[in-house]
Specification:
Blueprint: E1 6-8, E2 27-32, H1 34-37, E3 41-45, E4 53-55, E5 76-83, E6 92-93, H2 95-98, H3 102-105, E7 110-114, E8 132-133, H4 135-142, E9 148-151, H5 165-171, E10 176-179, E11 192-195, E12 206-208, E13 212-215
Parallel strand pairs: 5-7, 6-8, 7-9, 9-10
Antiparallel strand pairs: 1-13, 2-3, 4-10, 4-12, 5-11, 11-13
Helix pairs in contact: 4-5
This protein binds zinc ion.
The site of zinc ion has 5 residues, from strand 4.
Length: about 220
């Protein structure tokens, strides 16, 4: 049965998919097939930051929080989508823009920024000049009681950023980042729970996730 109630917010993992500039490309290989071997098996060789994935504090912080130590409840909870499309927020998403959503932000676990950028997935433009939060906006989010912040862009900071300020501000406050989300437009003004369960990787700083929005 197909459920319209669960919205898939994840990109497909496949050979040739976009990766962060300079990163290793994933290699997905069928090493056995039903016709030839009687069973199918696939080998997945890729960085954990490939496709729709979660970043943990240990990504940037020495001895930071890791995936295997997080209780599974940290990956699930009420979410809101902030619509940043059509010039609503501008390319830089500022604290002053976020203030109008404060009453909802105070009651949610996850905030997801819908910039519409996921439409550029699989095009050369995807990794260039995408919208993002400024540091003040990230500091504001850090004052809220959030589990995570999600983006439909390659990163929460610009490509090539050396000090990754938005990552640092959020991760040092134990707010996880979810990057390369898609379909967020389907959840604007909807009431939903967000889920982004990662693989339980020992000492893991990141993992691919199957992110979904579960509408109430
Ligand atoms: Zn990452």
């Amino acid at each position: 049965m197909i459920s319209n109630h669960v919205i898939d917010l994840s990109h497909t993992l496949e050979n040739g998919m976009p990766v962060y500039p300079g990163s290793d490309i994933p290699k997905i290989e069928q090493i056995a097939g039903v016709a030839t071997h009687g069973y199918a098996e696939t080998r997945l060789n890729m960085l954990t930051h490939t496709g729709t994935h979660i970043d943990f504090p240990a990504h940037l912080i020495e001895k930071g929080f890791t995936i295997d130590r997080a209780p599974s409840g940290r990956f699930y909870g009420p979410g809101i989508v902030i619509d940043c499309r059509l010039g609503k927020s501008g390319k830089i998403i500022r604290r002053s823009f976020l203030h109008q959503f404060e009453s909802r932000l105070l009651k949610t676990d996850f905030v997801l920024f819908c910039t519409g950028w996921s439409q550029l997935w699989n095009t050369p433009k995807y990794n260039e000049n995408y919208p993002m939060l400024d540091e003040e906006a990230a500091e504001y989010l850090a004052t809220l009681n959030l589990k995570g912040a999600g983006f439909d862009t390659p990163s929460a900071d610009p490509v090539g950023s050396e000090n990754l300020p938005v990552h640092h501000i959020l991760l040092s406050n134990n707010i996880f980042l979810i990057e390369n989300l898609t379909n967020l437009g389907l959840l604007v003004d909807r009431s939903f729970h967000f889920a982004c369960f990662p693989l339980k990787i020992k000492d893991g700083e990141s993992s691919p996730v199957r992110a979904v929005g579960i509408m109430s």
